[in-house]
Amino acid sequence: MMKICGHRLLIVEDEPLLRITMADALRKEGWVVDVAEDGVKAAALFEQHQHDLVVTDLVMPRLGGIELLKRIKALSPDTTVVIITAHGTVDRAVEAMREGATDFIAKPFSMAQLEVRLSNVCSVRILQEQNVRLQAQLEQRHSFSNIIGKSKAMQEVFELIRLVGDSDASVIVHGESGTGKEMVASAIHFNSPRRAKPYLRVSCASLPESLIESELFGFEKGAFTGASERRIGRFEAASGGTLFLDEIGELPLSFQVKLLRVLQERQIERLGSNRPIDVDVRIVSASVRTLEEEIRQGRFREDLFFRVNTVAIDLPPLRERREDIPLLANAFLQEFASDRRREIEGFTDDAIDLLEMHPWPGNVRELRNVIERAVLFCRGPVVTVDELPPNIRGGSPDAIIGDPSHVVSMQTAVVRAEVEAIQTALAATQGRRADAAELLGISRKTLWEKIKTLEIAVD
Prior knowledge:
Largest sheet: 5 strands, parallel
Oligomer: single chain
Number of domains: 4
């Protein structure tokens, strides 16, 4: 069965028998078919119906195929036009292709040949439309309209994203784990002139020191044991686009000087080669750590800091913008309810109150996990307190600021805070320690050591 792209087709052919034969064959394939015996009538029909596909003869009385093609493209540039050509008019068919025709078919042809040709044309159009939709979805997913917040702090973040979007300035995004640093980085890229070029993320914290250079700069065949073929690095792969260096503060000092040189000279050399390669890449980086403090501690180069810190964006933790929690919670609820084809209208007031009271050590990422869990457990039209995890239902924190009866030693307060943060992260991730460690911004080994040291009960 042939593929069809749309539902309405226009056949323009001055030979009555061929016109009728084509119309009958294509109606059987599911098309709604209109016919015209010349270009003038075809132009009038097209203005009325805006057909998805037009099959037109090239040589006709009153108005020829190429002139008709021009009129169709002026009204609807996306309409697919296939030209019918006879012997001796192939050159004119090529001219029609230059004017925007998608394909041509030469007389004489069978209906089977016509159906195959139109099916191929429609396959290409369907792929093009899918690509357009996917690109639109990608841009929407990464637009800063998806970074939710009405708080003053987030409005300032939105304004900075707008300001830096049209520039090539290097940007560094500061914020605790789970605050949405990568969303800001992708929003900067997809709201910039580089949006059609690659956006690549590199997790500096997860790369072993021995692999950082080959990952970012690439390598030539034979550069080291196991280098069986040439491989380009992230800088080359992101050419023309944006490279997001997540947790840039984790890069070893020995590599920081190499990165600085690349950013200054805008050239890289693959491992195993001394040939410089030009790179055109915008750098957006992020860090949980305060890089100024890392500089004071001798762990980060000051000259590299100045190079990547043209503009700094500070993302506030969720506990400092509690007015955004209902907005975020409802946005996540709509997303997960839609994914699971559930009709959930919102939250009870008590549930929202508890969400606003929670300290959210894992920030927006933790809130997202909590809402996903709530949707799974919800059995009614709204999420109630009972659908929230136990650590959220526990209510307000033990220590109440300003109440002298709750004053404890600093050491005790730190221990309590660590225990609460770890219990909250484990609950939010349903006990998955790797995910909990990511939420907390620590390694799995550190999390396991703290669980043992603090004697935290785990399932």
